[in-house]
Write a structure and sequence with these properties.
By secondary structure, the chain is mainly alpha-helical. It has 10 helices and 2 strands; from the N terminus they run ααααααααααββ. A hairpin with an 8-residue loop joins strand 1 and strand 2. The radius of gyration is 18 Å and the shape is globular.
Length: 254
């Protein structure tokens, strides 16, 4: 967020993009607060996850401390690309991924993905406004993808062991199936992001997440609640807040 705020203040950025960038910073600030609150509760129950958080912080701190505004924006734009295509991937598999998930946790997860779709082009436009090219963008995508993949795989393994699911073959079959599906669907799309004519606006938004977001009451912070029976949410929803999450809630139960 610091790089986006700094980049938006640059004189090369037009007023319209500056306003979008500052809106992005505000939105990501809300995400960050909810993530911290949720992670605090989760790591208090599963202390091993704190190691993953520490590694993530060190990576991001190293990028901020040693990178230029352009290189940090490249990483941020790459992370947004990974998040957008992850949202598309989840949208098509929401029944298998979230069918038996805890309702409030799934709602917060869907809320985050939906807003990643909403601001998919902001950081990329800011990066390009700072003269960013495809080489650094490739570095940003690769770096973001590596952090994302290692965090997900490691955290999933920790939670599977904690829930004593390690010896269930079905758990591993599902994890392998989802992983392969993600690799073969998302990686080629990320590769297309390096084409000269690429722009995030040219990618269609996932249908269900777009519908979900259209029913989100921003003023009240009330979102459509994920429902176990319909699997597609119920309107109206519930306030977006990780404080409502129950003890021991896990996002995806495999």
């Amino acid at each position: 967020m610091k790089a986006v705020r700094t980049g938006a203040a640059d004189g090369r950025v037009n007023p319209e993009l500056r306003a979008r960038a500052l809106s992005f910073v505000h939105q990501e600030g809300s995400h960050q607060r909810e993530h911290r609150e949720f992670n605090r509760g989760l790591t208090s129950q599963v202390p091993a996850l704190r190691h993953i958080e520490r590694v993530q912080r060190r990576v991001f701190r190293a990028l901020d401390d040693h990178g230029t505004t352009q290189s940090v924006l490249a990483h941020a734009a790459g992370a947004e690309a990974v998040a957008f295509f992850t949202a598309r991937w989840v949208d098509r598999r929401r029944h298998s991924l979230l069918g038996d998930a805890n309702g409030p946790v799934a709602t917060m997860f869907v809320w985050h993905l939906a807003e990643e779709v909403e601001h998919k082009d902001v950081v990329y436009d800011l990066y390009r406004a700072h003269g960013g090219g495809r080489v650094r963008y490739l570095f940003g995508i690769v770096c973001a993808l590596m952090v994302f993949a290692l965090s997900v795989v490691t955290a999933s393994a920790v939670l599977i062991v904690r829930e004593r699911q390690w010896w269930r073959p079905g758990v591993h079959v599902r994890m392998i199936w989802w992983s392969l599906s993600f690799v073969f669907e998302v990686l080629p799309l990320l590769g297309l992001c390096l084409l000269k004519e690429h722009h995030p606006d040219r990618w269609s938004d996932p249908d269900w997440l777009a519908q979900w977001l259209s029913n989100y009451d921003r003023r009240g912070g009330v979102a459509p609640a994920w429902d176990h029976d319909t699997l597609d949410g119920i309107w109206p929803g519930e306030p977006i807040s990780s404080s409502s999450l129950p003890d021991g809630a896990v996002l995806v139960t495999v």
